[in-house]
Write a structure and sequence with these properties.
heterodimer; A: about 750 residues; two-stranded antiparallel ribbon; 23 helices; 4 strands; globular; B: about 180 residues; Aminopeptidase; seven-stranded mixed β-sheet; 4 helices; binds coenzyme A; NAA35-like_N (chain A)
């Protein structure tokens, strides 16, 4: 079961507060107790599991933070004004760096930075100005701090202020408290929220200057190492400060990140010069926090791990600035999804910074309105050169004018979709487990949205006097561009949910055939839907070309949409072929007994189908196949093993060709502007996975041909370790001979 | 800590249902057994929370030689309301077998007994969480018919993630307002 009590219980009541009236309940207690037999339990109706998990046993040292061992004192006896060797100051700074990273990873301040005696002393008086942040408790004596101690103090303050920026950043965006990150500062101004940035920077610079002129104390190497650590703090603050300037040149916003990326390498090399001071850190400090939590251990990351995480943090910080080089919404989505798919995933502070860059104050990328973003997207996906998106409509004030009414309908549309739409971007900035879970909710919202938007489409088609489309094969109906757009987004999200299921190892091996069948079903639906959109875009294009208002600009817009549809359909085709191939391969492995299903005495296939497909059960379109349809389509009982493998071979081969074709397309054609490298790497990984699937199929075919009907296969199936295959979304088995 | 495994069980184990009168005799052993694999101990209130209300869903495996505790399972069963319509949801809160006695089907027997008890009391489904690295536990549950329904990021205090496992005992009512959390 879940192990944690919440990190943030309410503060203890203050019994000596004038508003609290104490009542002696001893007599009542004794009277009540007499009605009970010894050992009898009474449970209050309001005592929940949550409370039981939060409850502590007094005098149990593992739970009671006030429980002292023989001779132990309640407070830490370490004096922060004691003399430190230069290498000790360096050691403490590096220990703090490790704790800072542990905090970035999601551990609370109480188990990380607040275990430092120095941090505790500096922040215990709730300072609101930098003068009040002291080691000695008096601003007078503080002026005479020895240079090394002053450097340590400046370092701590710079560190805490940097964490304050991060904390505020995270709190502003979508993240999951305690799961991704703990913003709780235990009722104290630990992160120096009220202290201004300017004096912090000044203090850091002053500390560096003092170190330089210090009377020959530390060796040159150590002096340099101390200086670089102070420089890192300055750069970090600069990076955070700059990220608010989203309209600045992204290249200049990258500067401090690039600088830190260099500094951390020096810090790594210098680390061995330092000497750790274990006494300067203690879990006892947790006793002073406004919390009733049991004492929890200090989270130790090794310096090597810390360095590696910081290196990535700084690299990621630099990379996300590229999001500001906006090209189009589809490329933006590719940017976000490929960036977040990286392993290990970027830290919460980077994931929230990315959200912040995109959406802070509802100003998209610092320059655009959300309306511009949505309209731009529509113009690419289903509405090139469309009357619906004509800004001139807004200027018509005659209420009966169709243009005025069109403008109104579009306003209703944008209001209806805005939240769901922006959520798609935000969801991708969550941890991978949450991406999947939240998408499961979001598709419900998109399903409802699609239905609502179709009503807007219907009203608009009347306003715009649209005619249904007739083809040789009959009527295709109306274009429904807005709901078509919504449907495409919904389908993509549904595919992602299943694909993330593979990535997160949610499915058991004998489920893979069925789940790949479902991916294939979804991708095929997406391709068909792309084809439908294309039909209407072509109709519009033909009509537009025939008119005398056709311009080169319009042509570009049409071509961009056709290019988008082409890329979408090719991507969908690759997915459906590859999924089809894997479905057939796994079906064969199931049938030959090379993959064995567990006995599952308490379950049956139909019940498990319900659990598995629960996120899709209520989706109106595409309707979830019934259990019988699903079973038949997956097991394909009428198709012989040979035929299944032949089919798998050609499907996987088709996917391979498709990925090759995709990989040759430009960033503009594939809507991966600004992230083409990452996008291409992803396609190449898919290609490698498809190649290895082809090998698995061939191995199986050859062995079967050699052994003949009914012969023993002498093969076994090796499944790749989670995350160790060519691509997390394409789980490809290895077929290996056994002797 | 490696513990020498017994190659043979000490005869037919006794499986008994927990009752409150057994608290003094067995609760300390239950706590000790379960705490071994936890980074932080549960308070006695957590145990009592479950045992007081659902003693009938808690089973112990005892050594026939001296009646000492070898394995235990602790569950609850109540309406789960964040769904509409609510389901009657069983929950396996804790399961542990003393390391020397693992690999003999003891946990499997305990889980089966509690599933049977919960099914008898009309449970619609049974759920639990287990650490992503706990392969023995996952194999055990999956062998019985549980499916992983989702992964939970950093679910445990030690920073590890978990899987939610679900065993559906009855078909869900059709057309229900779906929820996936
Ligand atoms: C998980 C845990 C409860 C399993 O206990 P266990 O008694 O060893 O479990 P079982 O014996 O029923 O099953 C384990 C293995 O023994 C095998 N086994 C089952 N019945 C058997 C029998 N009669 N004879 C021999 N082996 C048997 C099973 O096939 C299983 O094999 P596998 O490891 O290949 O899957 C135990 O490892 C434990 O206490 N772990 C620590 C606490 C924990 O993780 N709890 C679960 C949290 S949800």
């Amino acid at each position: 079961m879940e192990q944690h009590a919440p990190q943030s219980l309410p503060p203890r009541p203050n019994p000596s507060h004038p508003g609290v009236m104490a009542v002696d309940i001893t007599d009542n207690f004794w009277a009540a107790v007499k009605t009970l037999a010894p050992g009898e339990l009474v449970k209050d109706g309001h005592f929940t599991l949550f409370e039981s998990v939060g409850a502590l046993e007094i005098m149990d040292p593992k739970m009671d933070s006030g429980c002292l061992a023989e001779g132990e004192s309640l407070d830490e006896e370490y004096s922060v004004t004691r003399d430190l060797l230069p290498e000790e100051v360096l050691g403490i700074m590096d220990q703090l760096l490790c704790l800072e990273m542990a905090w970035h990873q999601g551990y609370p301040l109480s188990q990380t930075l607040l275990t430092s005696v120095y941090v505790e002393v500096l922040t215990k008086t709730h300072p609101t100005t930098i003068e009040e942040v002291t080691f000695t408790g008096s601003s007078e004596t503080e002026k005479n701090l020895p240079t090394l101690l002053f450097a340590l103090k400046a370092y701590c303050i710079g560190l805490l202020k940097g964490c304050d920026f991060v904390n505020e950043l995270v709190k502003d965006e979508l993240y999951y408290e305690e799961e991704d990150f703990v913003t709780n500062s235990f009722g104290r101004n630990i992160l120096l929220y009220d202290v201004e940035l300017r004096p912090v920077n000044d203090m850091l610079q002053k500390a560096r200057a003092e170190l330089r002129v210090m009377n020959n104390k530390p060796s040159k190497d150590i002096a340099m190492a101390l200086d670089i650590r102070l420089e890192l703090r300055i750069a970090f603050l600069r990076a955070m400060e700059l990220s608010a300037l989203r309209t600045a040149n992204p290249e200049s916003l990258k500067m401090p990140w690039i600088q830190m990326h260099g500094l951390i390498e020096h810090i790594k090399k210098q680390h061995s010069l330092g000497k750790p001071v274990p006494d300067a850190f203690s879990t006892k400090l947790q006793r002073r926090l406004a919390s009733t939590l049991p004492p929890r251990p200090i989270v130790y990351l090794s310096f090597e791990e810390t360095h590696e995480h910081f290196r990535r943090l700084f690299k990621d910080g630099k990379e996300i600035m590229d999001v500001l080089k906006y090209s189009d919404p589809q490329s933006l989505l590719t940017f976000v999804s490929t960036f977040q798919a990286r392993k290990p995933q970027p830290l919460p502070c980077i994931r929230t910074l990315l959200q912040n860059l995109m959406f802070k104050d509802n100003v998209f990328l610092g320059s655009y309105t959300i309306r511009q973003l949505i309209d731009h997207d529509l113009s690419i996906v289903s509405l090139p050169c469309a009357t619906q998106l004509d800004l001139a409509n807004d200027t018509i004030e005659v209420p009966t004018d169709p243009r005025h009414r069109t403008s109104n309908e579009m306003t209703i549309f944008r209001q209806r979709v805005e939240e769901c739409y922006l959520d798609v971007f935000r969801i991708f900035c969550q941890n991978r487990c949450r991406v999947r879970r939240t998408l499961c909710h979001n598709i419900q919202a998109w399903d409802a949205l699609q239905a609502d938007v179709e009503e807007i489409d219907t009203r608009l088609q009347e306003l715009l006097a649209e005619k249904p489309l007739q083809t040789e094969s009959g009527s295709v109906g109306y274009s429904l561009p807005l709901s078509s757009w919504a449907y495409l987004y919904k389908l993509r999200q549904m595919e992602w949910i299943v694909q993330l299921g593979f990535e997160l190892s949610v499915y058991q091996t004998d489920e893979l055939a069925g789940m790949y069948w479902y991916v294939n079903y979804l991708a095929k639906t997406r391709a068909q839907h792309g084809d439908r959109i294309k039909t209407f875009v072509m109709r519009s294009l033909t009509a537009s070309r025939a008119s005398n208002s056709y311009t080169a600009a319009k042509d570009r817009e049409y071509m961009r949409t056709l290019s988008y549809i082409r890329a979408t359909m090719l991507d969908a085709a690759c997915t459906w072929e590859f999924a089809d191939g894997l479905c057939c391969l796994y079906t064969v492995l199931n049938r030959l007994g090379l993959i064995k299903s567990p006995p599952r005495p308490y379950s049956n296939d139909a019940l498990r189908y319900e659990i598995r497909m629960k996120p899709f059960m209520t989706i109106g379109l595409p309707q979830l196949p019934t259990f019988d349809e699903f079973t038949k389509a997956t097991a394909q009982p009428e198709t012989a093993v040979d035929a299944l493998l032949t089919y798998a071979e050609s499907a996987v081969g088709g996917a391979k060709k498709g990925y090759e074709a995709l990989s040759k397309m430009t960033d503009g054609q594939t809507f991966s502007v600004g992230c083409h490298g990452r996008w291409l790497a992803n396609v190449k990984d898919c290609l490698k996975a498809a190649i290895s699937a082809g090998i698995a199929v061939t191995t199986l075919q050859k062995t079967i041909a050699k052994v003949g009907d009914g012969g023993e296969l002498k093969l076994k199936v090796e499944m790749p370790e989670a995350g160790k295959g060519y691509h997390d979304w394409w789980i490809v088995p290895k077929i290996v001979p056994t002797g | 800590m490696e513990v020498a495994r017994v190659t043979e069980l000490p005869g037919e184990l006794r499986y008994i249902q927990y009752e409150h009168v057994l608290e003094e005799q067995y609760l300390p052993a239950i706590r000790a057994l379960i705490s071994k694999d936890l980074s932080e101990p549960y308070s006695i209130y957590v145990y009592r929370y479950f045992l007081y209300q659902w003693a009938h869903l808690c089973y112990m495996a005892l050594n026939p030689a001296d009646n000492s505790l070898i394995g235990v399972i602790i569950c609850k069963l109540e309406p789960h309301a964040s769904h509409s319509p609510p389901t009657h949801r069983g929950y396996i809160a804790m399961l542990a077998v003393s390391s020397a006695y693992r690999g003999h089907g003891i946990a499997t027997s305990l889980v089966k007994m509690s599933i049977d008890a919960m099914a008898e009391r009309n449970a619609d489904e049974i759920v639990l969480e287990t650490e992503e690295t706990n392969l023995p536990a996952m194999r055990l549950y999956e062998r019985l018919g549980f499916l992983r329904s989702k992964k939970l990021h950093r679910y445990y205090l030690n920073g590890n993630s978990a899987y939610r496992l679900v065993l559906l005992l009855k078909p869900m009512s059709l057309g229900e307002e779906h929820q996936s959390d």
